[in-house]
Amino acid sequence: MTSTRQTAATPDPSRQHEDQPSLNTREMRRILASSFIGSLIEYYDFLLYATAAAIVFSQLFFTNLGPGFAAFASFGTLAAGYVARPLGGAVFGHFGDRVGRKNVLVISMLTMGIATCLIGLLPTTAQIGVIAPVLLIVLRIIQGLAVGGEWGGAMLMALEHAPKKKRGFAASFANMGAPAGAALATLAVSAVTLLPQDQFLSWGWRIPFLLSVVLVTVGLVIRLKVAETPLFRQLQDMAEAKKLPLLEVVTRNPKNLVLGIITGTSVYTIAGMVTVWAVSYAVGSGADKTGVLNAKAAAAVVMFLVVIISARVSDRFGRKPVMLTGMIGAAVCVFPILWLVESGTVWGFAIAVMLGQGLQGVIFGPFGAFTAELFPTHMRYTGASLAYQSASTLGAGFTPAIATGLVLTAGGSLTFLGTVWILAFAVAAAAILLTREGSTRDLTTMRAGSGRE
Predict the structure, then answer these.
(1) What are the Major facilitator superfamily (MFS) profile domain coordinates in residue numbering (predicted)?
(2) Which of 127, 358, 441, 444 has the fewest beta carbons under 10 Å from its own?
């Protein structure tokens, strides 16, 4: 991996960055497209696993367990990928902060594509025994490492090219990739569920995983044409470029890191609940599998649209007010969402998942810019990735398994689960109130520590 050094004759990239009049230039459109499409492909691969874990893996890789414990084990492998995400954020973030955003993104995409295709080729427990779930977990961890490095880089490629007053909207293109990838993954699985059950279980579920080869090829072609960010090019001749990003984040910005993680858990508890746990619960309660998956895909489209709107609103009114609005709304809707899922009908699930993902979009739209604005350039990839990926681990990675465990503990009642979920939103809201509004900050002069510029 190489990087280009700035010469004395080169104009100050920070001035180019701040003076850029709009996002509507050919180069900027290519950058935003790369951020969106790259993120879409990575999250297609990563969230495809989540859908398969909810409806098929328990029947193929955990066949010796009862239905409840098989679902718990399946969600446990899902959690393994989320556990790996912060490590991926730290590793890829280190190189992204030291040698550049672009090349690291290419490697993360290749890693994800290879792991996803291998899952599609993996023999089941009936074919090779206990080694099958072991290999499944290994490949899921590799997926987690790859997606851990993807989001931070994709988000920064857009944000660090964008003018100050449009950073939230630019950064949201990486966030838009998540619901778009989720919709594509869900529709791909929904299509193969139309096969007879024996064909779906024997080979049909593999098709969406193998399609990743095509998507990754397209993504690489687009990503290789994008230039490195001006803020990173400016960094190359500064002393900060020689520092260790992870050490800098942990020693000089620990407060922002912790607050960013806690704030992000609110986004991901919604994702874990309504797009993974609720799918398994609704199908297990008698709702039609294909109908549930189609409703989930429609909800991802709703979230996609809300992300665009909330990101734009955050550029005008600030990140904190928009995200707090989403958190409060989500807390109010916790029990209505759970009651709708409990109905065991496709329509009940559809309303629940659309409501949940819509509220998730309100929080998620500004979240990319929110995390980036917590850290200076020389540690921004590492810091933003660690905050985001750790939140995903705590929020979405463990939520389906925890939710299943809480329901089992409560004898099937959802009241205990709902109460714990509301408390998670309350803690996240308290965390965001302790952060500084980032939409007005100048990223070119920002320093490590207590928010100085």
Answers:
(1) 31-436
(2) 127
Instruction: Report how far apart, in Å, the C-alpha atoms of 166 and of each of 23, 31, 229, 269, 373 are.
Output: 8, 14, 16, 28, 13
pTM across the whole model: 0.78
Return all residues near 425 (Cβ < 8 A) that are at least 6 apart: 266, 269, 327, 328, 330, 331, 334
Query: What is the C-alpha separation between 147 and 35, in angstroms, rounded?
Result: 13
* Per-residue pLDDT tens digits of the chain, which is 453 residues long: 444 434 333 444 444 444 444 566 777 888 888 889 888 887 888 778 877 877 788 788 877 766 666 767 777 777 788 788 889 888 888 888 887 777 888 888 889 889 999 999 999 888 888 888 889 889 989 988 988 888 888 888 888 888 888 899 999 998 888 888 888 988 888 898 888 888 988 899 999 999 988 888 888 888 777 776 676 666 655 545 556 888 888 888 899 999 999 999 888 899 889 988 898 888 888 888 889 988 988 998 999 999 999 999 999 999 999 999 999 999 999 999 999 999 889 999 999 999 999 999 999 999 999 999 999 888 888 999 899 889 988 887 788 888 988 988 888 889 999 999 999 999 999 999 999 998 888 777 666 554 455
Count each helix (H run) and each strand (E run) in the chain, helices first. Answer: 22, 0
Cα–Cα–Cα angle for 180, 145, 179, rounded to 5 degrees: 10
Helix (H) or strand (E) holding 435: none
- Retrieve residue 269's tokens: 């508890």
Pick from 156, 148, 93, 90: which is nearest to 115 by CA?
A: 148
Query: What are the Cα distances from residue 134, in Å, to 73, 181, 202, 320?
Result: 12, 26, 19, 42
User: Is 3.30.1380.10 the CATH number for 23-433?
Assistant: no
Q: Helices (DSSP H) in 224-253: which residue ranges?
A: 230-235, 245-252
With tokens 């895909």, the residue in question is 297
d(CA 432, CA 36): 26
Side chain identity at residue 346, one-letter code: V
Measured in Å, how far apart are the chain's first and last C-alpha atoms?
Answer: 31
Ramachandran area for residue 173 (φ above 0: left; ψ -120 to 50: alpha; else beta) = alpha
* Secondary element (H or E) of residue 450: none
| Alpha-carbon distances, residue 335 vs 123, 338, 360, 449 (angstroms) | 40, 5, 16, 40
Residue environment code for 268-285, b if the CB has 16+ CB neighbours within 10 A, otherwise e: bbbbbbbbbbbbbbbbee
Evaluate whether 223 touches 34 at the Cβ level (below 8 Å).
yes
What is the C-alpha to C-alpha distance for residues 82 and 145, in angstroms, rounded to an integer?
A: 9
* Boundaries of every domain in the chain: 23-433
